[in-house]
Design brief:
alpha+beta; Heat Shock Protein 90; five-stranded antiparallel β-sheet; 12 strands; cell membrane; ATP-binding; HAMP_dom
Length: 453
């Protein structure tokens, strides 16, 4: 089925952070409120301003007409000159040939003209230009003769004007700044909680402590609960590591005695060899427990990947049932702990040697490859065995889980791949398993790329 338009809009919006979602919603609410109030004020001011403007123009016309009517011929000329110089009013006769541009291009102008018509007569004309001369021209009649009164255009000011736009811009800027501040204050505790959760996920329990003295009661309760949870998890982790290390340490003493007694008291060479093998296997399992119980924090330094791989495969190249091929970019540097990285590669090689042998040849054909991509180094360890059932892939990194092939051998603790995943997380990388298209299992590792020493 095709993707609906609504789902196409939801996907980009779902990737927006909570801060920007809150900011956008608050901005829409505030800007909408400002526009609504602006429209309301303009509507309430429209009629009074139109009536006031018409009354002012009508008063100017009536006063000018009265002054001209009651002045004699000589005084009228002086009065017209004084009105022009002192008040900015100009009175000229209206001719039939006059051309003018009527000022009725908006609702405010039409309302003023209608009001002037009721005060000065229905034939009153209001023009913005007369015979090419700009100004505010109003027609009127004196004793049957038509005249034009030119006055200042600023008296004919529509509702709002640039003042409304300035205040609207100021209000919008202040509203957006307030929305950003409010969104930041709302999302700050969530951001701190997210950071603390990520630190706790990485095993850094000390850096995941939140402020328990914030003013907001709900946030304070969440922070207190989170801190108590982090403390309990840290205690559980310490107890687990201590228990595993203690058990592993205490088991080594009786195992050493068993090995010594086996070598000295068992006369049958074959039986002695089997017992020694079992003791060696138990000792290896103890090592796995110690590896898994290792602390989560490691010190990362630039490491030459090729050198670590060479040291790991040195002893395995002599084995008759293993064939290893290495394909690396030159001078690959990764940010890792050299010992931990060696343990990861060794575990993967040992896993491939045990369970990745070809059914036809009985040889574990292992290929190691690595290349750089931006800030990462991508490494792959692949064998050509029978692979793993897709339903079991995600379980292989679980502690103490063993696949079907491993269960038949039953010679491990089921911690090898779990240790690999945990170690990769400690070093800031990732680890994934997948069945190869050409057969076998592929281990994909992503390590941080380091710069030159």
């Amino acid at each position: 089925m095709g993707e609906t338009p609504s789902s196409g809009w939801r996907k980009p919006f779902s990737s927006v952070s909570l801060f920007w979602r809150t900011f956008f919603l608050l901005s829409i609410l505030l800007i909408g409120s400002i526009l609504a109030w602006l429209q309301t004020l303009r509507s309430l001011e429209f009629e009074p301003r139109a009536v006031q403007t018409a009354q002012l123009l009508a008063s100017q016309v009536n006063l000018s007409r009265a002054a001209l009517v009651y002045a004699d011929g000589i005084a009228r000329i002086s009065l017209i000159k004084t009105m022009k110089d002192e008040e900015g009013l100009r009175i000229v006769p209206r001719e039939a040939t006059d051309s003018f541009e009527s000022r009725d291009n908006d609702a405010f102008s039409r309302r003023v003209i209608a009001e002037l018509g009721s005060r000065l007569g229905q034939g009153t004309i209001v023009a913005s230009r007369m015979n090419g001369q700009p100004g505010l021209w109003v027609s009127f009649v004196i004793d049957g003769d038509d005249y034009w009164l030119q006055t200042d255009q600023t008296k004919f000011n529509p509702a709002g004007g640039t003042t409304w736009l300035i205040w609207l811009g100021v209000a919008a800027v202040l509203s957006l700044a307030g929305a950003a501040l409010i969104a930041g204050l709302i999302n700050r505790p969530l951001k701190e909680l997210s950071f603390a959760a990520s630190r706790m996920r990485d095993g850094d329990f000390e850096a995941s402590q939140l402020d328990e003295h914030v003013n907001t009661s709900e946030i304070r309760e969440v922070n207190i609960g989170f801190n108590r949870m982090a403390q309990k998890l840290a205690k559980i982790e310490q107890d687990r590591a201590l228990m595993l290390a203690g058990i592993s340490h205490d088991l080594r003493t009786p195992l050493a005695r068993l090995r010594l007694e086996t070598e000295m008291s068992v006369s049958n060479l074959e039986a002695r060899a089997h017992m020694a093998s079992d003791i060696t296997q138990l000792d290896a399992i103890i090592d796995k427990f110690l590896d898994y119980a290792r602390p989560d924090r490691v010190k990362l330094t630039p490491v030459v990947l090729g050198d670590v791989i060479d040291s790991c495969i040195y002893s395995m190249r002599k084995l008759p049932d293993v064939k290893i091929e290495v394909d690396l970019e030159e001078d690959l540097l990764v940010l890792a702990d050299e010992v931990e990285l060696g343990r990861v590669i060794t575990n993967l090689l040992e896993n491939a040697r045990r369970y990745g042998k070809s059914v036809n040849t009985g040889i574990a054909d292992i290929r190691i490859s690595a290349l750089s991509r931006d800030k990462w180094v991508l490494m792959k360890v692949r064998d050509r065995g029978i692979g793993v059932a897709p339903s079991q892939l995600y379980q292989l990194t679980q502690p103490f889980f063993r696949g079907e092939a491993a269960r038949t051998a039953a010679n491990g603790a089921g911690l090898g791949l779990a240790i690999v995943e945990k170690t990769m997380q400690r070093m800031g990388g990732t680890f994934q398993l997948a069945n190869s298209n050409t057969g076998g299992l592929s281990a994909h590792l992503r390590l941080q790329r380091a710069t030159r020493f």
